[in-house]
Design a protein that fits this description.
Helix content is about 50%, strand content about 20%. With about 750 residues, the protein is an alpha+beta fold. The protein folds into 3 domains: about 5-280 and about 715-730, no CATH class; about 290-410, Glutaredoxin (3-Layer(aba) Sandwich), CATH 3.40.30.10; about 415-695, Rossmann fold, CATH 3.40.50.
Length: about 750
């Protein structure tokens, strides 16, 4: 059968004229766009998420109304009006007709999807917008639209009534979206449930929209669209030739074989490793820190994945991604990583083995046939090298998986760990009570120890990678100072967390800390100022409790969210900001810094709306701050010598010790992992915090006032209404004008 591109283009143009010459098409498009954007802008300013995640999440459900409406008449109308035979009497075959109608409908939907671009551009001015994810979202939307359009054309080829075509197409599209949901798969055998999840359009769409291109997802949409268009062609062919024609039978057989092969490839595609990470931050690509740790392995490490085959279908996407990541580790390990996959459901011995190493059997609530059922299963990891074993009890999601796996691999395979020593004896923060979360993370790379002042006056322990001085408030005596100075002058490293004041959170009052140890740092050119920082633009909302027990939330300028001045620095490792409660600013004495042979790097600072107040000033949350004299204030400094001189110390200074406490670390994980990065830099070790920081990149929307929010919202809503309606009015007016001109000339 000959396939003529010109014929397809002719049908394409004819269908587009039908769309753009029909006022109803503009109404459908505008209603779709306004509803879509209205629902999105209703929530985006509350979540402050600089992405189109919320907008894309609604799209499959809105497609259930839009696409059946534009495909219901594609072939059904030709049948009901008797124009189908007339069309096919021209040098045009059935396949060309189907292809032309499909491309025209896809182009019309593409016009609607194009309005994603101005929304994306608008948000990019006020937040860290990931254009790689946007490409995935747009591509996923086009592919999903192509699948539903091909389904709609197939349904339209079956029926002669447009309304029937609309209803049937909407119902089938709905089923295609929810195939893998708990509502459908609940109570079904796991094999059937997993197969339905594989054939659910929503799961494949969500994967692409996250910024990850995997062969299985691309194949699903491409093969699905071709299958439905092929079925539409087959039914048109049957109408023309009947069942007894050999060409029809051959086509029917070929299409059946093609459908079977497509389904087999779709199932086998789960094992295809090829994938492309579109995200700007490479969220789905192993970090350089992971590569370095795998490269440094001296003995093989074994990854054992315990995964039950009776897990709910909703977890199959997670299982698939976990296996893909483990295959990446094996590839990068170059023979030093061995992978085992065991199924505890098949053997009681394997289940006992999993429990013995610390992998947990989890219970899941699953909607069965009109009842809530409970199923249990394993999805955990064992990391082992010789007698050393570590475990991930249960993999809940992928956001933390690489960090857990790499850090536990480091912990299981490192023999001689360096020491991080925390100075004690002067009322410093303790790793046993104040910094327990930090101690847990550091233990994956280092040995952490506390040393009393009496011990440290003798000498620091051997293999000390860094000393941490965390907020002393009692005198550090001269002998101890000398030991610390000698350690630094011989190329040692130290993390100084200096509290220039002590604060009473109940009364929001501060007093000067006479024994802050800040004077020691002046010898190295760092001055911890006796002030309290604020930032009127970038700060956190904090809960305060009044005397009568009422709680109030205020944007609190004395809890500034300070920004990394160089997000690509190893110290920050893409952590864009941290939160510092009641911190002090830092200054540099250039002469003393030069005399010590050191260079100073400003790591974190306030915005230009920052400032500071004296220690005895009011810290009330509802006070008005004078905008005069605001400027950028430095709050974190890193000191180091030249690369050629290894005898120069490495020093990090922060004007606050509370930012790493457990309460702050739980609420602001970026604080915790900046500390991990900083200590790793001081100890000259590859930082595991770099892996974690990929997930913590700040994608918040930041508006200076509500006017900017309204401009973004109403500009995009106006654009979505004015452009289609304006073009429609202009086009229809011109057509009427041409029609009048034609009639006039004939008269």
């Amino acid at each position: 059968m000959m396939f003529n591109g010109k014929n397809i283009f002719s049908v394409f143009k004819k269908e587009l004229r039908n769309y753009f010459n029909n006022p109803a098409a503009y109404i459908v498009l505008v209603v779709f766009l306004l509803l879509w954007q209205f629902l999105f802008f209703r929530n985006v300013f509350i979540t402050e998420d600089a992405s189109l995640r919320g907008m894309i999440g609604m799209l499959p459900w809105l497609f259930l109304f839009l696409i059946p409406a534009i495909t219901m008449a594609s072939i059904a109308q030709e049948k009901s009006e008797g124009t189908l035979e007339f069309l096919l009497s021209h040098p045009l075959n059935d396949l060309e007709l189907v292809a032309g109608k499909f491309l025209a409908a896809l182009f019309f939907v593409f016009v609607g999807l194009f309005f994603l671009l101005p929304v994306a551009i608008s948000l990019s001015f006020y937040g860290n917008f990931d254009w790689g994810v946007f490409v995935g979202q747009f591509l996923g939307s086009v592919l999903f639209a192509s699948l539903l359009i091909s389904l709609g054309i197939f349904v339209s080829s079956l029926l002669a009534n447009q309304i029937s075509s609309l209803i049937v197409s909407a119902v089938l599209s709905f089923l295609l979206v929810i195939f893998g949901s708990e509502t459908i798969t609940g109570g079904l055998p796991s094999v059937i449930g997993n197969a339905l999840e594989d054939f659910s359009g929503l799961s494949h769409f969500s994967s692409i929209a996250s910024g990850l291109l995997v062969f299985r997802d691309l194949w699903y949409f491409a093969s699905g669209s071709v299958i439905f268009l092929g079925l539409a062609y087959l039914f048109l062919l049957k109408r023309r030739m009947g069942k007894n024609r050999s060409f029809y039978r051959k086509t029917q057989l070929g299409l059946g074989i093609g459908i079977a092969l497509a389904m087999i490839v779709n199932l086998l595609a789960n094992y295809a490793p090829a994938r492309i990470d579109l995200t700007a931050d490479h969220l789905y690509t192993l970090s350089p820190a992971t590569d370095q740790i795998l490269k440094n392995l001296t003995e093989p490490v074994v990854f054992t994945l315990y995964v039950s085959d009776k897990l709910p279908p909703q977890t199959q996407g997670l299982v698939r991604e976990v296996k893909g990541i483990l295959r990446d580790y094996k590839t990068r390990g170059k023979g030093k990583v061995e992978l085992e996959i065991k199924n505890p459901s098949k053997s009681e011995e394997i289940a006992k083995e999993a429990l013995a190493v610390g992998v947990q059997e989890m219970r899941f609530n699953v909607m069965g046939q009109e009842e809530l059922q409970v199923v249990s299963g394993f999805l955990g990891m064992k990391i082992s090298q010789g007698e050393n074993k570590e475990a991930i009890p249960f993999v809940q999601d992928l956001s933390d998986f690489e960090y857990q796996l790499t850090s536990l691999t480091k912990k299981a395979t490192t023999k001689d760990k360096k020491k991080i020593v925390f100075l004690t004896g002067h009322k410093e923060k303790s790793i046993k009570t104040d910094y327990t979360l930090l101690e847990k993370e550091l233990s994956k790379q280092f040995v952490t120890e506390e040393f009393m002042s009496q011990e440290i006056t003798k000498s620091l322990p051997e293999n000390t990678a860094a000393l941490v001085v965390a907020g002393p408030s009692e005198e550090v005596k001269e002998g101890e100072r000398k030991v610390i100075a000698d350690y630094l002058n011989n190329g040692g490293s130290a993390f100084f967390l200096i509290d220039a004041h002590t604060l009473s959170p109940q009364g929001l009052t501060a007093t000067e800390n006479q024994n802050s140890f800040a004077d020691f740092l002046e010898n190295y050119g760092v001055i911890v100022n006796k002030d309290i920082l604020f930032d009127t633009r970038s700060n956190e909302t904090v809960r305060f409790t009044s005397s009568d027990g009422m709680s109030f939330f205020f944007p609190y300028p004395f809890w500034p969210r300070v920004n990394a001045l160089d997000p690509t620095s190893r110290l920050t490792a893409k952590i864009e900001s941290i939160v510092l409660p009641w911190a002090s600013s830092l200054s540099v004495d250039e002469e003393k810094l030069a005399a010590a042979g050191l260079f100073a790097e400003k790591v974190f600072a306030t915005t230009k709306s920052g400032g500071s107040k004296p220690i005895d000033a009011s810290l009330a949350p509802d006070q008005k701050i004078d905008p005069a004299g605001l400027e950028e204030k430095t709050v974190v400094l890193a000191l180091s010598g030249s690369e050629e001189n290894s005898k120069k110390p490495r020093i990090i200074v922060v004007g606050n010790s509370d930012f790493m406490t457990d309460g702050m670390a739980q609420n602001f994980q970026e604080n915790l992992f900046f500390a991990v990065n900083g200590i790793s830099w001081l100890g000259q070790e590859e930082s595991l915090g770099e892996i974690k920081s990929k997930q913590m990149i700040d994608h918040r929307l930041v508006f200076q006032n509500r006017t900017q929010m309204k401009v973004v919202k109403y500009f995009n809503l106006g654009l979505a209404a004015i452009l289609p309606l304006g073009y429609g009015v202009l086009r229809i007016w011109r057509r009427r004008g041409l029609r009048k001109f034609s009639y006039g000339t004939r008269l």
